[in-house]
Specification:
By secondary structure, this protein is of the alpha/beta class. It has helices at 21-34, 52-55, 93-96, 107-120, 142-149, 154-157, 178-181, 203-210, 219-224, 228-231, 235-240, 277-287, 311-321, 336-348, 361-370, 386-392, 403-408, 429-443, 446-458, 463-478, and strands spanning 5-9, 39-45, 59-68, 71-82, 85-91, 131-135, 160-165, 173-175, 196-197, 200-202, 213-216, 245-247, 298-302, 327-331, 353-356, 373-376, 396-400, 422-424. A nine-stranded mixed sheet has the order 3-4-5-2-1-6-7-11-12, sandwiched between helices. A six-stranded parallel sheet has the order 15-14-13-16-17-18, sandwiched between helices. Helix 16 links the parallel strand 16 (373-376) and strand 17. The model has no long low-confidence stretch (mean pLDDT 96).
Length: 480
């Protein structure tokens, strides 16, 4: 079979624009698929916030006009080859010349434009994909638009679609008037088996209904979202489409995240000189104003500070946790109540708590390298990347058994010496506290702990295996 042509459509990608894990996937998965002889190209918006160093290297690939309801909007296309992958950037200053990626009043119009534009530009850039691989609600209506507006055109009629759910909680739900005014579709599409959703329009639902294949970012999450608690009012559709739903775990970029070569670290190290990880710990403690003490385990939290990440559990037992002989390092921003919680903890326990309430990519890598443990007690977690980064850098994860955390972290068993971290099943603060204390007890047995570090660092959570699974899925779709 000749090389499969894939257009990978996403609203963000590293290193151009990032708010979450989707950007990491978009920046890494296409590179891995390229190595498997997949002709994959990426399309994303031309945001104002894309760094100048990349803008200056882009070349114009043409322009056209795009219909958004009754509007006729300009669409420019820019092209850039980055790390061997072709990226197309959809340019329109009205929609994308903004200080942030999301959160504006006209998101329905903004991303309808993007979805329509990425179809319209295909003839301009002279690339007609076999499959458009869409990601999250911002690209949810691509498959709907192909079916409703382009099916009569032979070139477009052959295109198949894959839709990946990165987090089903975020759906793109808008007033029903969007159907006619923005999408330019008739009311026959406003039914429960199409895109009607509690008398509104749901962009993610459109992707679930109209795409040939649905994927999500871990096997456990693919099963969880079939149930109401995880399915965010879409579990019935997931169950109905269950034969077309696949769970493929995300990977991480092993070249970008390599403790032996990462220039963001204080000191580089690998499995042959893992003792140098201790130098990173000392320098991290020093840089954060914590007492430098190798005997005190450093527990890290690198996260958005939101309910989904289990911070209500942490809030409930934080005082009890801080009675242990530990240091707690927090990096992230989010809900005010959690920022206030950790701000107060740092004031009350200055020798035990460091709270960096910000986004800092360099500090994040230094924490992965310098901490002893990473805490992720998520209520739900479609995949999770932080636990994979921590394993790569020899930091031991403590997680709740949900979604991708369950798929990637196996709790240490002292009787068989198996496992790569510590985990608990129930969403319960005292179960979490017990598990943290259990991890602390093993930390002081250096033979066990060093074996855990080495096991984590030698595990392969790169994109290679996942990319193989995606390629197999593409082939399966093409053979239908």
């Amino acid at each position: 079979m000749s090389s499969i042509k894939i257009l990978f459509a996403a609203s963000e990608a590293v290193p151009f624009a990032k708010t979450g894990g989707l950007a990491d996937v978009t920046g890494s998965l296409p590179k891995a698929l390229k190595k498997l002889d997949v002709d994959i190209r990426v399309v994303m918006p031309m945001y104002k916030t894309i760094p100048r160093e990349f803008r200056e290297k882009m070349e114009s690939a043409g322009s056209c006009y795009v219909r958004v309801g009754w509007r006729n909007q300009y669409c420019g296309v820019f092209r850039l080859v980055h790390e061997g992958v072709v990226f197309y950037f959809i340019d329109n200053e009205y929609y994308f010349n903004r200080d942030s990626l999301y959160g504006y009043f006209d998101e329905a119009e903004q991303f309808t434009f993007f979805c329509t534009a990425l179809i319209e530009i295909l003839q301009i850039v002279d690339f007609m994909p076999d499959i458009i691989h869409c990601n999250d609600w911002q690209t949810g209506v691509v498959s709907l638009l192909l079916a409703a507006k382009y099916s009569h055109i032979e070139l477009f009629n052959r295109i198949k679609t894959v839709f990946t759910i990165h987090n089903i909680k975020y759906q793109g739900v808008f007033p029903k008037e969007v159907l006619t005014d923005i999408l330019g579709l008739g009311w026959e599409y406003f039914t429960p088996d199409k895109i009607e959703f509690y008398n509104q329009v749901n962009f993610l639902k459109a992707g679930l209904v109209y795409s040939e294949i649905i994927t999500t970012v871990s096997r456990t999450y693919a099963e969880e979202i079939k149930y109401e608690f995880f399915g965010e009012n879409l579990s019935d559709i997931i169950r109905k489409r269950s034969e077309d739903v696949y769970g493929i775990i995300n990977g991480i970029d092993f070249e970008e995240n390599n403790p032996a070569a990462d220039n963001r670290l204080f000191v580089n190290y690998d499995i042959s000189c893992v003792e140098k990880k201790a130098v990173n710990k000392c320098k991290l403690q020093e840089s954060l104003g914590l007492p430098v003490d190798m005997d005190v385990p450093v527990i890290a939290i690198i996260s958005r500070l939101v309910d989904q990440k289990g911070f209500d559990l942490i809030s409930h037992v934080l005082h009890d946790l801080l009675q242990e002989n530990i240091q707690l390092v927090i990096l992230g921003t989010g809900e005010q109540k959690y920022e206030d919680l950790f701000r107060a903890a740092a004031l009350n326990y200055p020798d035990k708590v460091s709270s960096s309430l910000k986004y800092d990519g360099i500090l994040a890598q230094r924490i992965y390298a310098g901490a002893d443990m990473l805490l992720m007690p998520s209520l739900f977690e479609p995949c999770g990347l932080s636990q994979l980064f921590s394993l790569r850098y020899g930091t031991i994860p403590i997680v709740r058994e949900t979604g991708g955390l369950k798929d990637t972290i196996q709790s240490y068993n002292e009787f068989t010496s198996e496992g790569n971290g510590f985990s608990f099943a129930n969403y319960n603060a005292y179960d979490m506290l017990y598990t943290i204390r259990r991890a602390i007890s093993f930390y002081h047995n250096k033979d066990i702990w060093n074996a855990l570090i080495r096991r984590g660092m030698t595990q392969d959570f790169s994109w290679d295996k996942s990319a193989d699974e995606y390629k197999e899925l593409y082939i399966k779709l093409m053979e239908r």
